[in-house]
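Hey, quick one: can you model this chain's 3D structure?
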Amino acid sequence: MGTIQPKVEEPADEISLVHAAKAGDISAFEELVKRYDRNVFRIAQHITQNREDAEDVVQDAFLKAYQNLKNFQEQSKFYTWLVRIAVNEALMRLRRRRPERMVSLDEDIKTEEDSMPREVADWSPNPEQLYTQGELKEILGKTIQGLPPSFRTVFVLRDVEGLSTEETADALDLSIPAVKSRLLRARLQLRERLSKYFKNRTGGDGKK
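Sure thing. Here's the predicted structure for all 208 residues.
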């Protein structure tokens, strides 16, 4: 006979924690904070490009989420709802910091989507152009920072944080076509900027 394995408690699923938090269980909400605070911080830092602002965004987002938990209708994931709150907080900080340049995810952005190439899934540089992973990460981070906020936010949620197109649309209160369009533009801009960077690094003549 085999030995009896001790029962391992599986972590509570998200919706169970949400229900417990709604019922007044502070520890359940604290568990949600522990699960998602790093993700929310990364998103906030990408948008604000400032660590202190990002830390404030995380605190404000979780506080607002807790205060408005009763209004969460559970039609989407709690994390998606939380990301929406955090993105709004981050964009408000950008507006206060740059009043002369209003930042919005609702503004219409003209695109030439119909004339754009569809084969842009691989927007990264060629493998031979990739140096160490650490260097690439730093270069990519700086390049992402150069994107317009509306493109950068969509790219971070979709390609960095791994949200689905539907979740990204829900979190940003955008249509799915708008998310796809902005993601396409973000990838194209990143591809162009990274290509220029690596071309300069190899001498600018394009020779291998």
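One thing worth noting: Residues 198 and 204 are 8 Å apart (CA to CA).
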